[in-house]
Amino acid sequence: MARKLFNEPSPLEVKVISKRFGIDNSESLDTYLGTDGMKAFWKAREMSPEQIVDEVKASGLRGRGGAGFPSGLKWSFVPRTNPKPKYIVVNADESEPGTCKDRLLMEYDPHQLIEGMLIAGMAVDSHKGYIYIRGEYRYLIDHMDRAIAEAYAKGWLGKNIQGSGFDFDIYTHSGAGAYECGEETALLDSLEGKRGIPRLKPPFPAVAGAWACPTLLSNVETFSAVPAIIRDGGPAYAALGTPKNGGTRMVCVSGHVNKPGVYELPLGFNLLRVVNEVAGGIPNGKKLKAVIPGGSSCPVLKADECDIPGDYDSLAKAKSMLGSGGMVVMDEDTCMVRALVRIIRFYAHESCGWCIPCREGTTWLRKILMRFHDGRGVRSDIDLIGDLGKGMLGRTFCALGDAAAMPTISFVEKFRDEFEAHLDGSCPHGKAHELVLSSH
Amino acid sequence: MTFSPELEARFSKMLESYPPGRQRSAVVPMLIYAQDEVGSITSELVAEVAKRCGVTPLQVEEVVGYYSMLHRKPMGKYHVQVCTNISCLLVGGEELYEHTCKKLGLGNKEVTADGQFSIEEVECMGACSWAPAIQINYDFHHHVTPEKLDQLLDALKKKAN
User: Is the CB of residue A342 less than 8 Å away from at least one CB of chain B?
Assistant: First the structure.
């Protein structure tokens, strides 16, 4: 039976890591083996660890969780000759608002992730991997557990995999509700049974990660891209994207579009075309106002700034980020103050409280913004909100503070007129009723 | 304290999945799985998890205080979690949350007198492209309208009676 697709695919997609989505029993090992699955495993067995790492470097693959760090370089940082055990940790704590792709990669193609972990294990001499899955995704924890059990039963996990002489074990690990645990070092503390508080870096996880051992930690999508890279070669994968921005990525389109959904698109695919062609344009003939290109922590782009290639470097040039691939589309009727209030309520709720600029900064931003949107703001608040964001930027222990500061600064700079329009005590977009929501 | 045979089996396997001497790692998953069976994080459960993972009850307490899915008081049999984060907000998530509150006569994290339903306004649950989304316990529901929510809740109410 084919699993029901979450959304119709687009003819503009380039399906590399999502190619098994929607085919019969795509989650079974037999289907995987019958559709090029585990070919990369055997190819990697013939390669030296250095050759595997070089292939990943040649692919131009960059971390798909948000930071966009070059994956091959990260792999080369793991000291493979270190006598300590080394671990592969998959970040499946997907929680950046706007992002819902890792869910699909695990649901439709769990063995692709397993194969990616096996190859990573060979490259860094690791024999044990953990998939840290957010607690809300319980059905996926069960789903991955079934896939892992099937792989063990058929000799694709455990000792001497398929007679290859390579041993590898995989376990799932449940989170319990905390955005901060998507930050790699907070995730490791959570994996070790503690509060998810970020660690001082360096040392980076590659050197001292899980249980103080060298750890290769990456997002689900990043590991899921590895089998295709090894199977077809790094340069072939790189050629799908733009220079230094190899391959494809899962773009999660949400908000005001006719066809919201998750689409696999080559790096460099024009953002405006994603909105208008892939996602079917804005409903009811309305105009585009703004796009958050890669999850709620990214600086917002105005409609006239969206005609750019969707890759890491082009987004950086536009002073935003490709982030986690969560593209949030807002039409002309969207109240940008209300949108920012909601984004900041999130970061204030999720701040772990460890460092003061983040804990206090997000709390005060939330208080001021909620008051402002309720019509009780004064003109000087507008600068205060922007300045508070600037005061946090780069001054917090981990990136969560920046994640709150970046949308704040960009919303105030680019939509100052909308903030000013709230000064007469009402929201010009008609949604004037007071936010009765909890400050949870 | 003992759990169902299924959960006991899960816990023995879980404790073996971490490196020797690192059983503390099981604290978070053990708490959330146990909560599903016990109903909430009780002092007895904290002590039990501490014992099994080789840590002090205080080390478990500090974890309980951190994670939003761990509850010290029981939530309803059907815990209705409505996302109002940005992607859901843009397509009616806040209105859906308000509708749910009115429908059940509850505020955030409150439970009906009969213990059947509770509500929580939650943060992004990873259903952004199929918004607005809710979770009832661990089950996702996508593209939820107030009408669809009414149907879901009415069906659960019937089941409860």
Answer: yes
Nearest of A174, A276, A342, A315 to residue B131 by alpha carbon? A342
Q: State the nearest Cα–Cα gap between A131 and chain B, in angstroms.
A: 12
How far apart are alpha carbons A276 and A258 in whole angstroms?
9
On chain A, the residues whose CB falls within 8 A of the CB of B124 are 95-99, 179, 296, 346
- Give residue-wise pLDDT tens across range A194-220: 999 999 999 999 999 999 999 999 999
Pull the structure tokens for residue A427. 């929201």
Report the distance separating Cα A415 and Cα A399, nearest Å. 24
A333 Cβ partners below 8 Å, 6+ apart? A286, A289, A429
The residue type found at A175 is: G
Using CA atoms, how far apart are residues A318 and A328, in angstroms rounded to an integer? Answer: 17
Please tell me the distance from the alpha carbon of residue A362 to that of residue A346, in angstroms, as a whole number.
9
What digits encode the pLDDT tens for the residues A391-438?
999 999 999 999 999 999 999 999 999 999 999 877 777 654 444 444
Three-state SS letters, A300-351: CEEHHHCCCEECHHHHHHCCCCCCCCEEEEEECCCCHHHHHHHHHHHHHHHC
Can you tell me the ipTM of this complex?
Answer: 0.98
Residues of B with CB below 8 A from A434's CB? none
Q: Which of B25, B66, B87 is closest, CB to CB, to A192?
A: B25
What are A68's two structure tokens?
């966009």
Distance from CA of A138 to the nearest CA of B (A): 6
Nearest CB neighbour to B69, from listed A139, A177, A260: A177
Contacts with A261 from chain B: Cβ below 8 Å: 129
Residues 30-89 of A with CB under 8 A from B: 85
Asked if A126 is an interface residue toward chain B (Cβ–Cβ < 8 A), one would say no
pTM for this predicted structure: 0.96
Neighbour tally for A404: CB within 10 Å: 29
Q: What residues of A are in contact with residue B86 (Cβ under 8 Å)?
A: 97-98, 255, 292, 296, 328, 339, 342-343, 346
Q: Which residues contact B158 (CB under 8 A, 6 or more apart)?
A: none
Cα separation values, A94 from A4, A287, A399, B27, Å? 21, 30, 15, 21
